[in-house]
Amino acid sequence: MADSAVAEISFGRVAPGICVRDIQAAQDFYARVLGFRKVFENGDPVGFMVMEKDRAEIHLSQKPDHKASTVNVMHMFVSDVAALYAICEVEGVRIIKGLADKAYGQRAFVFADPDGNRIDVGERRS
Asked: Does the pTM of the predicted model rise above 0.70?
């Protein structure tokens, strides 16, 4: 029953929730390096924030004792992965996996934000 019922439901954009130790430092990183802008915040002091760029959305949650995972917490598709890789290099962002063509049809790399959250960035190859 669930399979047929869920087939009728349309899903919209999905936004990953990312835990960070310092939400203001995370906001600065995502704005300065990736061009995201804050569109919502909650709490006093702020403990939750929504950031957007184009069709992408990230939900940041302050967690002072956050420990980064060893797996990717988010995958982003971009229109020019090589240009974003170059920006990350110039900004001194920690690159986990260098820019490469992948067997699954993407050109991709993985970086870590200041809290160690791993983010996979890709561009579909034609």
From this structure: yes
